[in-house]
Specification:
alpha+beta; 8 strands; 24% helix; 34% strand; globular
């Protein structure tokens, strides 16, 4: 199964007391076959409305109904969601928000072009490593991710997510022991 390709644009997210970079992923209004973030509050994207990844929303103090600006354009937070299909990295990485495809495309500039994300669900998930190891010469001009690959499999995403929470896990273990 597939979903996408979805446009992804970097933009400046501002609101009272907030000025940070965000990764805006354009999505369809209807449910995706693969990787539909799970809403924990509110509703899914609509034109002029955004859904913010829950950890990012918590860090910024955003909630359903908050008004934000992306590159100066006003948006209303209509939902908060979680997704296991993203690699979440340290704080220096832009937080994830979901917008409509048209809103993501509108964030593109000559200096910040739109990239694309395509989600695949393999018939045989155990073959994901072999799929990742295929030559990527057709993508030679694309930007590679931090692992030097254009592709992430579910095990790689799981590993990246675990690295983020492993520090918290160690702190909690020490504190509970004390």
């Amino acid at each position: 199964a597939t979903s996408g390709p979805y446009p992804v644009a970097l933009g400046r997210l501002t609101a009272p007391g907030i000025d940070t970079e965000a990764q805006a992923q354009g999505r369809d209004l209807s449910p995706a076959a693969v990787d539909r973030p799970e809403l924990t509050a509110g509703r899914w994207v609509r034109p002029g409305r955004v859904v913010v990844e829950r950890g990012f929303a918590d860090a910024l103090g955003l909630h359903v109904g908050s008004e934000i600006h992306l590159d100066g354009r006003p948006f209303r937070v209509t939902g908060i969601a979680v997704s296991t299909a993203q690699c979440f990295y340290p704080v220096s990485t832009p937080g994830v928000i979901w917008v409509t495809r048209a809103d993501a495309d509108a964030l593109a500039t000559p200096d910040q072009r739109v990239g694309y994300v395509l989600n695949l669900k393999l018939a045989h998930p155990s073959s994901s490593q072999a799929f990742l190891n295929r030559p990527a010469s057709a993508f030679a001009s694309a930007t590679l991710n931090d692992t030097g690959s254009l592709l992430n499999d579910w095990q790689g995403i799981e590993h990246s997510d675990f690295k983020v929470i492993s520090v918290d896990q160690k702190v909690l273990l020490i504190a509970s022991t004390l």
